[in-house]
Task: structure prediction
Amino acid sequence: MVKGMYIQDYGKSGNYYGTAQGYRKENGGIQETPFSGYIDKAEGNNKSRAFGKGIEEDGKNREECTEQEEWEEKLRKWDEEMERARERNRRECERQQAERIRIKRIRRKLLEKLAYKKYLARQDEIMQMNEKISLERAVGEDVYIEKAPLSKSLSVAEIMAICSKY
Result:
C-alpha cells in the first residue's frame, strides 16, 4: 500500500469507494491523515467481521482456511521433526567425535608402549652381546648364552590393559 494517498486518488469506481465514504463521515469531510492509514484500520475491522460469517480476509471460506491451517500445522510438525533430527545429529556427531578422540588416545598409548618395548628389547640385546663378548674374552672360546631376548611386541594382556584405561 502506498502511504500518503488521498481519497481523490481512488475515484467512484475504485475498490475503496465505500471505505472512502466511511472515512469522510468519520472525519467530517476533513482529511488530516492519509487515507491509507484509514484503509488499513477498516480492513482490520472487515476481517474481524467477515471471520464471524465464515469468510476470511481474502474472501476464502472456512474450508479453505481450515485447509491452510492444516498445512500450517503440518509445516509446524515438520519443523519440529527437523529440529529433533538436528538435535539427534548433533548428539551423534559429538559421540562420534568423542569416540575418535578415544581411539586416537589408545593408538598413541599403544605406539608409545610398543616403542618402549622395542627400546628395552634392544637394550637387552646389547647387554647380552656385551656379556657374550666379555665371556668369550675371558674363556677364549665361543660362548652360547641360553637366555631368551625380550619380546619386541606387545602382549595381549598389555594391549587389553591399555584399551581398558581409555
